[in-house]
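TASK: fixed-backbone design
INPUT:
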């Protein structure tokens, strides 16, 4: 069986240097990061046990409500009661050195 869900705009499914989608510890949802206006938050897409056999699609739910910063990685405690994450901001500087001897 296969289920297809629409993800919110800005959903970041990760790469080799960042977070990835993770099942919630209870196995009833998929957690992922959504970044909008350079601010990241974690969302969970519930996946009903009987989906798609007649079950209506359930909208994703926002779990965190940060107003600044990016989430680089996250993980759930085994009991699902705590969420650990690494977050911060990207800092970049450009320096031009000329006439170096």
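OUTPUT:
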């Amino acid at each position: 069986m296969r289920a297809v869900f629409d993800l919110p705009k800005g959903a970041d499914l990760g790469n080799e240097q960042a977070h990835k989608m993770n099942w919630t510890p209870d196995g009833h949802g998929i957690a992922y990061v959504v970044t909008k206006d350079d601010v990241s938050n974690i969302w969970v897409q519930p996946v009903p046990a009987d989906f798609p056999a007649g079950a209506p699609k359930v909208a994703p739910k926002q779990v965190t409500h940060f107003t600044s910063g990016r989430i680089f990685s996250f993980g759930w405690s085994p009991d699902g009661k705590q969420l650990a994450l690494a977050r911060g901001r990207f800092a970049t500087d450009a320096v031009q050195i000329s006439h170096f001897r």
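COMMENT: The chain has no helices and seven strands.
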